[in-house]
């Protein structure tokens, strides 16, 4: 199995793999994550989601941070590594960054956000609606951001695995699709304004240790977990080296603000700095650095 912190050329996507990604909008690796590390991540995610309020991140913009007692549905916890750098042994792994860089055609890759997404078994409310990541990143200048989707167990259609519309990253409507919380998956054709043949919808089933990558404009969703155990995933959102903040106005005429913007430093002209290493650390290249450890205070 490859060393996550010392990637070799043979661990990276081939030109054929990159061509597939460019055409389809997604790519799946061989098993690359050690199983004992996945076991550790399961424990960390469970502990993180049950931590006391005093240890939780405060944001004037707001972010999702599931806690016990919340209503049924998807258990989503954002900004994992910012709050607890020990997650970085996986979320900041140079191999993850090197694969993303190869697929995105960039020389360097930084973190943008990461989250734990948990679906409990037989929770019919735990559905993620059709959306694109780009729709939630309107303040980003890059059109080549990419998400690494890291399941902590085998992930099948029954457990609510990632479901994508193959090739939809090339459609001109995808960047506006913001239905993450809409559980009516049958509305896809209606909301995108075009027929979506059933064969274009791909359920990406992954063995433990595999990682999938998808383009920021790729339409994706996931069904409820019908298996007999929790489905836990780390979703690691990555930005190419040229990504910067741009001002975008919302429907109310005010600038769109992301939680990221409240956490990071400002550039000399007052814009959020999407290269702030404290919030957006570099995954690749990252020569000679050890995994981050410890816990960042809230």
**Architecture (CATH level 2) name:** Sandwich
**Which sheet architecture does the biggest sheet show?**
7 strands, antiparallel
Terminal CA distance reads: 35 Å
Number of strands: 11
User: Number of DSSP helices?
Assistant: 7
Question: What global shape is seen?
Answer: globular
Give the averaged pLDDT, no decimals.
93
**Number of self-contained structural domains:** 1
Query: Which structural class matches the secondary elements?
Result: alpha+beta
Q: What's the alpha carbon Rg, rounded to whole Å?
A: 18 Å
- What is the succession of H and E elements? HEHEHHHEEEEHEEEEHE
CATH class: Mainly Beta
Stretches with pLDDT under 50, minimum 5 residues = 293-298
Query: What name is given to the CATH topology?
Result: Jelly Rolls
Strand content of the residues, in percent?
A: 15-25%
Helical content class = 10-25%
* CATH superfamily annotation: q2cbj1_9rhob like domain
Tag the structure with descriptive keywords.
298 residues; single chain; Jelly Rolls; globular; 4-stranded antiparallel β-sheet; 18% helix; disordered C terminus; 11 strands; 7-stranded antiparallel β-sheet; 7 helices; alpha+beta
How does this model look, in words?
The chain is of the alpha+beta class and 298 residues long. Helix content is 18%, strand content 18%. It has a single domain, classed as Jelly Rolls (Sandwich). It is built from 7 helices and 11 strands. Strands 1, 2, 3, 5, 8, 10 and 11 form a 7-stranded antiparallel beta sheet that branches. A 4-stranded antiparallel beta sheet has the order 4-9-6-7, with no helix packed on it. The chain is globular and about 50 Å long.
């Amino acid at each position: 199995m490859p060393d996550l912190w010392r990637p070799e050329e043979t661990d990276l996507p081939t030109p054929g793999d990159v061509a597939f990604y460019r055409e389809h909008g997604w790519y799946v690796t061989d098993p690359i994550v050690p199983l004992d590390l996945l076991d550790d991540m399961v424990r960390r995610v469970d502990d993180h989601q049950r931590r006391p309020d005093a240890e939780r991140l405060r944001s004037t913009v707001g972010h999702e941070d599931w806690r016990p007692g919340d209503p049924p549905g998807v258990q989503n916890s954002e900004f994992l590594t910012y709050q607890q750098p020990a997650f970085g042994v996986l979320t900041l792994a140079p191999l993850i960054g090197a694969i993303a860089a190869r697929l995105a055609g960039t020389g360097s890759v930084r973190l943008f956000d990461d989250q734990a997404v948990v679906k409990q078994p037989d929770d019919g409310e735990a559905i993620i609606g059709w959306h694109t990541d780009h729709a939630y990143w309107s303040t980003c200048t890059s059109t080549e951001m990419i998400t690494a989707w890291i399941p902590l167990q085998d992930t099948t259609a029954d457990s609510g695995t990632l479901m994508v519309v193959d090739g939809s990253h090339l459609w001109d409507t995808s960047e506006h699709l913001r239905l993450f919380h809409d559980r009516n998956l049958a509305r896809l054709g209606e909301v995108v304004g075009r027929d979506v043949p059933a064969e274009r919808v791909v359920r990406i089933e992954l063995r433990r240790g595999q990682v999938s990558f998808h383009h920021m404009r790729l339409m994706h969703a996931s069904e409820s977990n019908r298996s007999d155990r929790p489905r836990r995933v780390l979703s690691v959102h990555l930005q190419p080296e040229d990504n910067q903040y741009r001002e975008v106005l919302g429907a109310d005429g005010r600038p769109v603000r992301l939680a990221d913007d409240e956490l990071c430093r400002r550039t000399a002209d007052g814009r959020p700095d999407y290269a702030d290493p404290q919030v957006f650390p570099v995954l690749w290249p990252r020569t000679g650095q050890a995994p981050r450890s410890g816990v960042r205070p809230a």
